[in-house]
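Sharing a chain and its predicted structure for anyone who wants a worked example. Both blocks are below, sequence first, tokens second.
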Amino acid sequence: MNLWAFRFLLWYVVILLVQPQNRFMFLWPLRIAYVSVAIGAVLHILACLEENRPIIRLGPGTILALLLLFFAFLSQHIGVFQRSSAWNPYLDTIVKNSLLLIMVEATAVTFERVWTVQMVALVSTLWWIKAGVQLIRSGATYAGDRLMGAAVSLIENPNSFAYMMCVFLPLYLYAYQQGTKKWQKYGFLLCAFAAVMIIFETGSRTGMVTLIAMAFFLVPHYIGRRWKTLLVGIVAIALIYPLTSEGNKQRFRTIPESVFSFMFGKNEEDAGGPLTQDQQSAQERKAKNRDTWALIKAYPVFGVGVYPDPSQYIGDFPMARGQVHCEILMAGRQMGFIGMGLYAGLVGLTIFGGRWIQWKAKAWPAISALGWTLQMQGIATAVGGYFCPSVWFPPMMLLAGCTSALIGLLRVEEDRKRIRAVRVVREESA
């Protein structure tokens, strides 16, 4: 029964990532997903009652998810500009993805199960690679040379597509490292190169900045362990980048200028002349971030509500409406500094928890490498999420759940070793 609960949860994860409801609406995939996770939850509860063990595991991830649920419902009812206390899309996202995290930690009761969750996520995202390669071949572009996102909510535009490729790129590299057969290793290495090519073809500065940030950690890690793989990767990227369209290369060349503008407050209008579409977009995002931050400081405790009425505050903060392309600011608008702290806690759990797992599991290379992978995925989430609006999205909660589950399992393993050592000492002294 416990195993079947875990299997139904995996099926839910597959549908969340593949999102076939956009192509096979007649199958009602989302309803299948909800039925699947409901069956999984019921089976999990029955298994826990039968085995006389806790229904949830109060690891750091579950605690953060429970706090998120509590403060989301609190903000839903006492947020100063909340539309109503009725169910809404933002609350729906928070509740479902928090329960996903809790279920992952509760059902992934072995190291093998945590590994399985990651591998299921990997397999589910392979069609993203396939879709990206097909779109590149067909020349399907968005706003000039930029590669379109596949028609699903997680990767529906170039920035989201590049962001998700960065988040799952470390997982493709992990599968390459752990592959036992040559076709597996080379297959996943090709997936990693395809992901990099997709990031280049989207022309996403968010994706490129995230990729550069990850490189600061990947390169030193690979130099001492897999320098041949690193050399192959550098050569492959050197061959892929020149094939990128000139329009996308031009976008990447503006990254230093955009960073300078962001850091020192320089406006694009200062350069004179009409603004390009990219400059207009950058100015709008900057204004949204500025006004949203001012709004958060004006209502710091519980924010303005999970689903606020913008007409109540646009007079003072005109750009703090709609989607804000910064996940932590979106969390702050919903729940104030509390929401920002919870978001930082979940991302920090993946980064620093992954680092802790890598260090604690040195004697177990596969788990240690998985900890490193989670750490890199957390870094991609932190950097990419700073420029994207998808706060509390499923992959972030899934990664936090896997990290928290691994931390709990390693602590249990440490306790067992300590108990065995004490028994050995007692037997020897006797």
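Comments welcome. The beta strands are 141-142, 146-147.
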